[in-house]
Amino acid sequence: MIEKTGVTDPECDRIPGRLFTSAALKNLASDGSELPDLVLHRGSSAVAEYNNPDLIPGMYPTLFPMGVGGFDVPDRVCAISFANQAKYYLDLADRSFRYHHSFLFVILNIIQRHTAHLQTHFTVRRSRFESVASKLIAVKSTVLRSVADHLEREGKYSDLSSEQKSALDLLKHVNTIAARIPGSQAAKIFMRNEIRSYCGFFGLPHVYLTLNPNAAHSPIFQVIFGDETVDLTKRFPILVSARERAIRLAKDPVAGADFFNFCITCIFKYLFGWDYDKQQSTPLGGILGKLESFYGSSE
Known about the structure:
By secondary structure, the protein is mainly alpha-helical. Among the domains are: 55-118, no CATH class; 121-177, no CATH class; 206-281, no CATH class. Helices cover 45% and strands 3% of the residues. Strand 3 and strand 4 (280-281) form a beta hairpin. The model is unreliable at 1-7 (pLDDT under 50). This is Helitron helicase-like domain-containing protein. Residues 87-298 form the Helitron helicase-like domain.
């Protein structure tokens, strides 16, 4: 691949155009070598996703030009989790990480996968633990696939073999718990149970409200984005066009998330009088008096 690459004049004022054309034709012509023009290296096994400090720097050489600073480094003096290190990179003054077109999505996907792998477990009744444990160990993937195909064809339960029935019966006795995965159905059930617990301890809520701060039209978001021309001391600061504001929000979703957290924190701190340090209402309270408790979730 390097043999097909040349160095040209970046200013294009010392090399005639015909030399560029000649070089292009030479690259197209065969030089008699049996080596391919482009070599894509591959392996027989997938790249390790866990405990692989070279994974992310290898995927994003422009973000890690020195090849250091990867995740899950075993000999790091102070251990840091994958999620906390990703958050640190997104909060750097150099916004190359948050502006990259795919880094944010790939990192979030890896965090979700790690959470699903490490925070998903099975629960079963104590009386059935021994029998269910032995069946889980003995069940085969081919049997599960055959049962799935049979159910997809809307087959009858009586047509299943004894081994297939045993595998299907496991669904009745085993529950999958994944309450720590954000956005999962189990996480929603967990929040509902917390709300019911709040109602049982504090009573029914007196106020229900939805907070939806609009980042695209807020001068505060423009400042968080990095626009130093916005004067927040004015009642109506001069902002860029609506199109440019929308582009900024799409370009920097991290700033949008920071704006949302900032707004919610300020609303409860200054409008409702909640002391986040002491986890209780301030002595003076807010516009609704003194808050005893509140519960909120983001969509």
